[in-house]
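Structure record:
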Amino acid sequence: DNHPPVFDKSKVELHVHLDGAIKPETILYYGQRRGIPLPANTVEKLQDIIGMDKPLSLPEFLAKFDYYIPAIVGDWEAI
């Protein structure tokens, strides 16, 4: 077999979920534009609420999406 091995290389993250990769600026913009209330009105405050600086349980992690998904869901321009 003359093919080089592929699975002996360092692993990298191959994808990032789109809903977790949206900038706070974008969330604020579309929340305000669509009249969706958000838990903060500045990038810094929103980042403090939706960001993570330590591992969370799955329910704690998923709860963060409840804060901002309504501002972007169904709006392909936002995504």
Observations:
- The first helix runs from residue 24 to 34.
- The chain is about 45% helix and 0% strand.
- The CA atoms of residues 36 and 63 lie 17 Å apart.
